[in-house]
Amino acid sequence: MSGLRNSPKYYLDDIDLKDVKALEMRLEALVQGEIKSVADLEDWIDLERTLMGRIQEAVTGHKIDFYRDTGNKLKRDMHLHDQTVVQPILLKYQGELDKKFCSCRFTGELHDSRYGAMKRVRTARLQRFCEVNIPLTVREKKLGVKYSEIRGAMTVDWEGETKPYAFVQALLDHQDRTIRQSAWMALAEARNKVKPDIDDIMNELVRLRHEMALNAGFGNYRDYMFQAKNREYSVQDCYDFHRAVERYIVPAWNRLADVFRSELGVNTYRPWDSTAKMLHSMPYTTVTELMDGVHAMLEKTDAYFAERFAFMRQHRLLDVESRPGKQMGGFMDPLPASKNAFVFANFSPSFTAIIALIHEMGHAIHIYLNNDFDEQNWRDEVTELYSHGMELLLLDRLGTFYPNEQEFKRAQREELRRSLGLLIGPLTRDMFEHWMYTHPDHTAQERDRKYLEICKRFRLSPVDASGLESEVAASWFDTIHFFLYPFYAIEYSISELGALQLFELYRADPKRGVTLYKQGASTDFNDSISDIYRRTGIEFDFSERIVKRIGEFLESQIEQLR
């Protein structure tokens, strides 16, 4: 990190990615590298990891720069250059480097305890590598940039003023039902203005991704992505999970909705009622208050958690301020060369902003504990376990922002309602993507209808959306994952089941719960998902048995806070 302290940047940017010839020469030198022994192969892997880490950190930094200011042409052009010029070069050479690794006669002698994940990932990647897919991937990246530009520029007409989309989203939590309704309708109107452009982007993404899957020898993009993500479960397991949640979790979701409807004093539970959080006080007003409060929550839970947060704050590795032109949402990105993490969030002052920062810090603390900043080794079922887990470990610290006892309980209940929702909402998205990519010839109208149908079965099961069907049907485009991170949904629900198991242990013994969290989060990514979960004291299991038990536990915890 010492090299970054005196730098104007928060990330290493020591490779000129615009010098394409020099970049290709570096990569070609790796391809031509001589390997005469296992030791040579390990040295070659280290050289490759170092170079790729430096390149990836620069690419990631440029992306974050753009997301922080989507209206800046220089930042946009740099990010677009990375996506359309650098990425095709990396894809081409990644195929050659994978071939060199997999065909090397010494690869089989590498110990699985250290290189097992690398062998699996590279073998699978080589199997689906197809050079004709490179230009298609470039086009896919361009469409992602276009989506980000549209989303970052979205504003809402609010009370005679132009407000950022995220500002009005925060008003969905407002206690005044009239304001919630007005905000909901204003957001829907803002989406409607750009809906044709968004539909065009998704239409082309579906077409491109289907073509890529066929080129790689798969019947559809869903099956292609299952292999690309190295999933340790089947398509049928996903379908079984969908059914179990519909059987055991959706009824609990509906019962909780009845409680909220009663507390709101409304006869009909409308879409803007399902967003209300029953929290009367503003948790903070400035970014400094948000940062100070989250630091205090972490410090009360574990000294290491607080130390990492303080480090990131000091070194400008956190950007959680809401600004016009900033990409919406939140994420954590690794900076593999400097061995750091960057947390990004764009939410107006709200309960959601607090939880988003805690969630992304869970990701950051996980990779600091694990010391593996190479995303190709990650599995989302693991990474999301420790972000959801962090939220629940800090549940009893929400009094930092809500010192009033009644408000504190309401905040705790809201976090547990979020947990219940995470067993439902991501499955809505997962089912939607299964349908989209196994029906690649669908129209935009059919896509909206399918999304509405799935929402009514799951997330919006207790909601009366009559007269608002088209607005609800179009709301899928608020989900950035459909555009930039396809088939990244069911992992949220699987990992939430795991996090709730950890929360059970925490409830019985808080100190042991934190210890297990840190023990599991430190586990090598070479281990199976089952082994990593086991070291966290829980089961990697999303069968009907676990869904039923965890659903009952969660509902009982929520009931205690009424």
TrEMBL record:
Q: According to its UniProt record, which cofactors does this protein need?
A: Zn(2+)
Report the co-factor binding details: Binds 1 zinc ion.
Q: Which GO terms describe its molecular function?
A: hydrolase activity
- Which key words tag this protein in UniProt? Hydrolase, Metal-binding, Metalloprotease, Protease, Zinc
Q: Would the keyword 4Fe-4S turn up in this protein's UniProt record?
A: no
EC number(s) recorded for this UniProt protein: 3.4.-.-
Domain Peptidase M3A/M3B catalytic: from-to ranges:
171-548
* Enzyme's top EC category: hydrolase
Keyword Ion transport in record: no
Task: Give the InterPro entries listed for this entry.
Answer: Pept_M3A_M3B, Pept_M3A_M3B_dom, Pept_M3B_oligopep-rel
Highest taxon listed in the record's lineage: Bacteria
Family as reported in the entry's similarity comment: Belongs to the peptidase M3 family.
The protein's name is M3 family oligoendopeptidase
What organism does the record attribute this protein to?
A: Alicyclobacillus fastidiosus
